[in-house]
Amino acid sequence: MSTSPLKLAVILASVRENRFGPTVANWFVKKAEAHGGFEVDLIDLAEHELPYVLSHQPSAEVTETLSKVTPRLEQADAFVVVTPEYNHSFPASLKSLIDWHYTQWQAKPVGLVSYGGLSGGLRSAEQLRPIFGELHAVPVREQISFHTAWEQFDENGQPKDETGTSIAAKTQLDQLGWWADALREARARKPYGK
Questions:
Q1: Is 162 in a helix, a strand, or coil?
Q2: Angle at 13 (CA atoms; ends 51, 45), nearest 5 degrees
Q3: How far apart are CA 44 and CA 12, in angstroms?
Q4: Which molecular-function annotations from GO does this UniProt entry contain (predicted)?
Q5: Residues with Cβ < 8 Å from 63, sequence gap 6 or more?
Q6: 56: helix, coil or strand?
Q7: Which residues lie across from 115 on neighbouring strands?
Q8: Beta bridge partner(s), residue 44
Q9: What stretch of H or E contains 80?
Q10: What is the pTM of this model?
């Protein structure tokens, strides 16, 4: 049984100009670090521009970009995706990251944190569940959503409803921790798919 901290990769999906995503992602990273059970790695997709054309023989430039993000996904025991909703779906940058990888997602839990207008990004989050299921990942039940997100945070980047959001974050992190620990032990006993 491993006693090393679980590695949690928090993926910031938005790459749009003047995006609100960093506010939500930074809040969640602080909650995950305070939770105590995780070593947290924030992966900002604005810093890792992957092309939308997939290839089994990527160019040197794409290989370089992949070399900066793939090992971080590989090392993660769990993921949290912080995503907006664009036109009833999630950003193409996130789909590109997902599609460039396969085994890195397998037998690992995924939490979803969405934000947006009136729907709070729920449609984008719900579209991600079957995609991660297809990749043999385990989406946890509890998810967090911020409706009219820009109105839910103060000027310091903190949610105005600190109590409710803290409870939601702890619940999701507890579920991620349970699944991440169980699946890490299972992968150590027998590599997934072997």
A1: helix
A2: 50
A3: 5
A4: oxidoreductase activity
A5: none
A6: coil
A7: 84, 146
A8: 12
A9: strand 78-84
A10: 0.96
Q: Pairing between strand 144-146 and 109-115? A: parallel
Count CB atoms within 10 A of the CB of residue 53: 8
Q: Exposed, middle or buried by CB within 10 Å (0-12, 13-18, 19+), for 98?
A: buried
pLDDT digits (tens, 9 = 90+) for 89-140: 999 999 999 999 999 999 999 999 999 999 999 999 999 999 999 999 999 9
Distances (CA, A) of 20 to 57, 75, 124, 157: 35, 27, 16, 10
Helices (H) and strands (E) in the chain, counts: 5, 6
Q: What's the CA gap between 7 and 3, in Å, rounded?
A: 12
Provide the sign of the torsion angle of the four alpha carbons 121, 126, 129, 131, taken in this order: negative
Tokens (6 digits) for 71 = 């090992």
Burial class (CB in 10 A: 0-12, 13-18, 19+), 30: middle
The 3-state DSSP class for residue 45 equals helix
In angstroms, the CA 24 to CA 12 distance is 9
Rounded CA-CA distance 92/114 in Å is: 15
Tens digit of each residue's pLDDT (9 = 90 or more) over 59-89: 999 999 999 999 999 999 999 999 999 999 9
